[in-house]
Protein: Glyoxylate/hydroxypyruvate reductase A
Amino acid sequence: MDVIFYHPTFDSSWWVQNLQNNIPGARVRVWQPGDNQHADYALVWHPPLEMLRGRTGLKAVFALGAGVDSILSQLKAHPDMLPQGIPLYRLEDTGMGLQMQEYAVSQVLHWFRRFDDYQRQQAQEQWQPLAEYRHSEFTIGILGAGVLGAKVAASMVQWGFPVRCWSRSRKDYPGVTSFAGQDELPAFLEGTRVLINLLPNTPQTAGIINADLLRQLRPESFVLNLARGIHLVEDDLLAALDSGQIKGAMLDVFSKEPLPVASPLWRHPRVVMTPHIAAVTRPPEAVAFIGKTMLSIEAGSYPGGQVDLVRGY
Structure:
């Protein structure tokens, strides 16, 4: 089983060694320009066009991340980049679910215990206990209910919060109220106190968190964006923060990364930011997932993680 590997920043030698050590029969090589020799599988991130073009012998391509918007953008611009019929897989959950749970829970508890308010009081040298929020009034609404959304929802249920999710199709997760489709989005938003975004990046979801959506949330709500910057209209969020409709925002992703210095998000007192680190690919878990998926394909089964090229996730 011949595997070609390309990633512009990963330690290629580590990946080659560990893939070969963990996948029986795998012969892994780092792809170099001009390499047109046979390959059964390709592991890629932002691959050069010539790496995949014309490789009709591929059994599958793996994108080395949970998001596949970059390679789908390449395919849209260059339809001949990947021969038709070759499946594309993403890393469904290679340690990312736990990381998303840690990130989301820590920030929700920060808001729930009013640490943001106490930090502002500290800056003003004020000593004033505040009324507690009640769990029943702190509904968590999760946009996107796939693998990562399900993990985050489960963690919020464990902390005793009312939890709801919204997605294209209805879900059946313990302790979670499911809303599905555009017609049910207003009902999902009504009463939501913390909006957590974990939507896939598709043309239908671009700009979904806009002024109209934010105004439908419960007053003084919170926004946590963990998916893609393109989902959020940043100027609309800033206006909602200034009006008080949104009390606080935690942003890990932005419309342009790195975030330009001129962006007012840097200086807004009710915005906390991190540089797209909420969940990163953890190589050991990724190797295990890739190996398991390859062996399933070799056995003739259809493992999870395959990307629907029409839907974009």
Observations:
- The radius of gyration is 22 Å.
- The first helix runs from residue 12 to 22.
- Residues 196 and 224 are 5 Å apart (CA to CA).
